[in-house]
C-alpha cells in the first residue's frame, strides 16, 4: 500500500468565472492568438499542494500524458487500494456550477486555490474521490469483456504539469523550433500548467495494455473501441474528439477521458458534441 488518502483539504470552489459563455467565434479567434493567451494564463492558478505518486522521473511521453511503458501483466484488478464508500453520485440537473462540469481548457484556467480530495488508485494513480466509484465500475465492466484497460495518467499536481510541459517544450526547441513556436506547439499536446484537466483529478488517460502508445493508433485498440462506445454510461466522455481541436484547443486524443457525470455524458455522447459545445448550449 502506498501512502494514501491524504489529499489536500479544500473543496472545489464554485467559481463561476471559469465557465465562459464565449461563443464559437470567440473560440475560433482565440485559437489564433492562443499563444498569447496561453502566456497570460501562466501563474493564473495555484497548485493544490503535495501530489501523490507524482515522483516518476523523466519518462518519455507523447501526447498529453506521461506514460512510460508499464510491464504487461501488471495491474489487472481493481484500481483502488483505499476503500472509500462515497455514494456520491449526486443526481440532479447538470448546472454550470456543477463540479462535474467545470471547464478547464487553454482559455479557462483552474480556479485559484482549487483543491482535490483524492482517492488513491493502484499503480500510483489518483483521482478526485467523487468520480472514483464510476471509474471503478467502468474499469470492472471493461475487464469483464475480456479487455485490458490501463490507466496511465490521472491526477497531476501543478509541479508535475509544469515538468511535463517543460519536457515537451525543450524537445521541440531541440528540434529547431523557435521559443515562441515551441511554446505554442507544446501547448497543443501538453496543456499549459494551470489549464490541464488532469489537475482537476477528473481526467484519466486509459490505454490498452497491448498498445501503450499515446497516439492515434490507440483509436484502433479493443479497449478504446469499448470505451468510446460505453464510457458515457459511467459519466466519462472522450474529451478531445477528432475534429474538435479548434474548440478544445487540444489535439485528438483517443485515450483521454473526462468525468462529467452520467447525465451530461449521455447528452454529450448522443449529440456528438464536445464539452465546450455542451456548456454553450
Ligand atoms: Zn490526458
Automatic annotation (TrEMBL):
<keyword id="KW-0378">Hydrolase</keyword>
<dbReference type="GO" id="GO:0004180">
    <property type="term" value="F:carboxypeptidase activity"/>
</dbReference>
<feature type="region of interest" description="Disordered">
    <location>
        <begin position="46"/>
        <end position="65"/>
    </location>
</feature>
<protein>
    <submittedName>
        <fullName>D-alanyl-D-alanine carboxypeptidase</fullName>
    </submittedName>
</protein>
<dbReference type="InterPro" id="IPR003709">
    <property type="entry name" value="VanY-like_core_dom"/>
</dbReference>
<dbReference type="Pfam" id="PF02557">
    <property type="entry name" value="VanY"/>
</dbReference>
<dbReference type="InterPro" id="IPR058193">
    <property type="entry name" value="VanY/YodJ_core_dom"/>
</dbReference>
<dbReference type="InterPro" id="IPR009045">
    <property type="entry name" value="Zn_M74/Hedgehog-like"/>
</dbReference>
<keyword id="KW-0645">Protease</keyword>
<dbReference type="GO" id="GO:0006508">
    <property type="term" value="P:proteolysis"/>
</dbReference>
<feature type="domain" description="D-alanyl-D-alanine carboxypeptidase-like core">
    <location>
        <begin position="126"/>
        <end position="261"/>
    </location>
</feature>
<keyword id="KW-0121">Carboxypeptidase</keyword>
<dbReference type="InterPro" id="IPR052179">
    <property type="entry name" value="DD-CPase-like"/>
</dbReference>
Amino acid at each position: 500500500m502506498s501512502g494514501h488518502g491524504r489529499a489536500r483539504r479544500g473543496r472545489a470552489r464554485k467559481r463561476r468565472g471559469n465557465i465562459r459563455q464565449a461563443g464559437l467565434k470567440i473560440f475560433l479567434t482565440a485559437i489564433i492568438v492562443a499563444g498569447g493567451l496561453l502566456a497570460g494564463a501562466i501563474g493564473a492558478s495555484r497548485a493544490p499542494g503535495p501530489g501523490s505518486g507524482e515522483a516518476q522521473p523523466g519518462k518519455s511521453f507523447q501526447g498529453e500524458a506521461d506514460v512510460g511503458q508499464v510491464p504487461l501483466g501488471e495491474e489487472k484488478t481493481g484500481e483502488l487500494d483505499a476503500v472509500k464508500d462515497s455514494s456520491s453520485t449526486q443526481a440532479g440537473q447538470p448546472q454550470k456550477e456543477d463540479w462535474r462540469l467545470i471547464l478547464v481548457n487553454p482559455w479557462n484556467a483552474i480556479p485559484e486555490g482549487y483543491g482535490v480530495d483524492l482517492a488513491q488508485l493502484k499503480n500510483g494513480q489518483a483521482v478526485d474521490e467523487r468520480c472514483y466509484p464510476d471509474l471503478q465500475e467502468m474499469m470492472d465492466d471493461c475487464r469483464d469483456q475480456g479487455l485490458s484497460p490501463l490507466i496511465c495518467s490521472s491526477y497531476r499536481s501543478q509541479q508535475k504539469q509544469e515538468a511535463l510541459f517543460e519536457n515537451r517544450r525543450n524537445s521541440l526547441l531541440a528540434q529547431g523550433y523557435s521559443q515562441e513556436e515551441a511554446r505554442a506547439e507544446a501547448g497543443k499536446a501538453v496543456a499549459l500548467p494551470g489549464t490541464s484537466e488532469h489537475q482537476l483529478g477528473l481526467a484519466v488517460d486509459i490505454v490498452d495494455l497491448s498498445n501503450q502508445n499515446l497516439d492515434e493508433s490507440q483509436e484502433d485498440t479493443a479497449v478504446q473501441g469499448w470505451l468510446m462506445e460505453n464510457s458515457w454510461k459511467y459519466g466519462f466522455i472522450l474529451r478531445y474528439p477528432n475534429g474538435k481541436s479548434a474548440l478544445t484547443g487540444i489535439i485528438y486524443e483517443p485515450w483521454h477521458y473526462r468525468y462529467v457525470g452520467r447525465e451530461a455524458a449521455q447528452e454529450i455522447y448522443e449529440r456528438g458534441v464536445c464539452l465546450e459545445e455542451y456548456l454553450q448550449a
